[in-house]
Amino acid sequence: MMIRFWKKRIKTGMLTEHPEFDVEMAEIRQQIKDEVKKRFAGSLAIRMVDSGSCNACEAECNALSNPYYDLERLGIHFVASPRHADVMLLSGVLTFNMYHHVMDAWKQIPEPKWIVTLGDCPAMQTPFQTTFAIKGPAAEHLPVAHHISGCPPSPERIIRGFLEFLRKV
Ligand code: SF4
């Protein structure tokens, strides 16, 4: 039994390790660190606002804090108050009920400020239909600086999206 296991193990190799991806991600991480240093004096604060999401986008964002992506070490921090933020990261379909809270949070972010939308929901590209309960797409109500697509976007997609945003501003 054990011999069969080890034969299979050696033949299959390690599925959890991607050396090429690791090298690419290390380069992206370094580029983000450099851009944050250049454009935001080494510290970029993000306030995440859920305007009616299924929480999968938030779950993927949580992975950015793990030791592999470790966003904090690149100078990007998630903050609890819009008053401490540079960027609003908006997820969800912008429901009627959340609309005023989103606008209120946006007003409280000090200038200069930017909004980045996360996932297909804020762009109304999800299976959800336009109903009285949804005020999306978010870009019709807010000056969206950058959009990160996906349903949900993977941590890799999000981190690449942050780099694209940093290069735009
Ligand atoms: S984009 Fe997809 S994963 Fe993200 S909140 Fe909408 S439905 Fe959920």
Structure in words:
Helices cover 40% and strands 15% of the residues. With 169 residues, it is α/β, with parallel strands linked by helices. It has a 5-stranded parallel sheet, sandwiched between helices. Helix 4 links the parallel strand 3 and strand 4. The longest helix is centred in the N-terminal third of the chain and has 22 residues. It is globular, with a radius of gyration of 19 Å. The relative contact order is 0.16. The model has no long low-confidence stretch (mean pLDDT 92). The structure holds iron/sulfur cluster. The site of iron/sulfur cluster has 12 residues, from helix 3.
Task: Describe the SSE topology.
Elements: H1 2-12, H2 19-40, E1 44-50, H3 56-62, E2 76-78, E3 87-91, H4 96-108, E4 114-118, E5 144-148, H5 155-168
Parallel strand pairs: 1-2, 1-3, 3-4, 4-5
Helix pairs in contact: 2-5
Bound molecules: iron/sulfur cluster.
Distance between the termini: 58 Å
Strand content: 5-15%
Arithmetic mean pLDDT: 92
Listing every helix as H and every strand as E from the N terminus to the C terminus, the arrangement reads HHEHEEHEEH
Q: In which order are the strands of the major sheet placed?
A: 2-1-3-4-5
Q: How many helices does DSSP assign?
A: 5
Q: What proportion of the residues is helical, as a percent range?
A: 25-40%
Shape descriptor reads globular
Task: Briefly characterize the structure.
With 169 residues, this protein is an alpha/beta fold.
Which terms summarize this structure?
binds iron/sulfur cluster, 169 residues, alpha/beta, 15% strand, 5 strands
